[in-house]
Amino acid sequence: MKFLSDIRLLLLSIWLGAAVFFIAVAQSAFAVLPQRELAGAVVNRTLSILNFSGLAIFVLLLLFSFVARGSVNRVLLWSERFLLILVAAACAVGQFVFGFWIALKRAEIGRPIDELAADDPLKIQFNMLHEYSVWTLMIGMGAAFLAFFVIANLKPGAAKAASSDPYNFDKEFKA
User: Fold this and answer.
1) Over the chain (175 residues), what is each successive 10-residue block's mean pLDDT?
2) Which pLDDT score, from 0 to 100, does residue 159 have?
3) What pLDDT is attached to residue 158?
4) How many other C-beta atoms can be found within 10 angstroms of the C-beta atom of residue 48?
5) Considering the domain boundaries, does residue 54 fall inside one?
6) Which of 76, 97, 140, 162 is 20 to 30 A removed from 106 (C-alpha atoms)?
7) What is the pLDDT of residue 66?
8) Is residue 110 in some structural domain?
9) What's residue 110's pLDDT?
10) What gap in Å lies between CA 66 and CA 68, rounded to an integer?
11) Domain encompassing residue 12
12) pTM
């Protein structure tokens, strides 16, 4: 079962690392590309890859959480499941709700967003949707970060193997 736990931590780490890397890609795209519309297209495509992979990974991790593990801390187990559902929901909402609304708003605008005045209602709505999308990703990343530590602390048999001496580290260092 340790192997399964390690695989789960690896999958979670891969997605979390990709999400952190996405932030750098988004900032770099807007700094380097000559047109903001091109940068927006790169960011949109990269974000959709992040969201779809997040959906797949977190549904898989959620299914893995139901594999029998013996006696584990039930509070941690259900906390893990809640956090995994939260990340999957954040990926789904980011992709299918805010991504869809942003695409509709871009189609409604029909020209580069930077050409609109700052007080244009369409630009204000676009910026608001973008801000919601950013917060959704941040919530998903925070939940994934917490889930990492919950999964790392779920130890099969930990409930019955608890020692009365909290400073006995002999069992910690044995293979």
Assistant:
1) 86 96 94 91 94 96 83 86 96 96 91 87 92 96 96 67 61 65
2) 44
3) 46
4) 13
5) yes
6) 140
7) 87
8) yes
9) 86
10) 6
11) 2-158
12) 0.82
Asked if 36 and 30 count as a contact pair (C-beta separation under 8 A), the reply is: yes
Tell me the three state secondary structure of residue 119.
coil
* Amino acid residing at 60: L
Q: Check: CB of residue 108 under 8 Å from CB of residue 122.
A: yes
The structural domain count of the chain equals 1
Structure-block tokens of residue 112: 């580069």
In a domain, residue 165? The reply is: no
* pLDDT at 165 (0 to 100): 65
At which residue do the structure tokens 């029998």 appear?
68
What's the CA gap between 6 and 57, in Å, rounded? Answer: 14
In the block, tokens 């999957």 appear at 88
H/E element, 59: helix 36-64
DSSP label of 156: T
Distances (CA, A) of 94 to 30, 87, 133, 169: 20, 10, 6, 44
State phi, psi for 167 to the nearest 5 degrees. Answer: -105, 15
DSSP symbol at 110: -
Pairwise CA distance, residues 139 & 94, whole Å: 11
Question: What is the residue whose two structure tokens read 């690392």?
Answer: 17
- The 8-class DSSP code of residue 94 comes to I
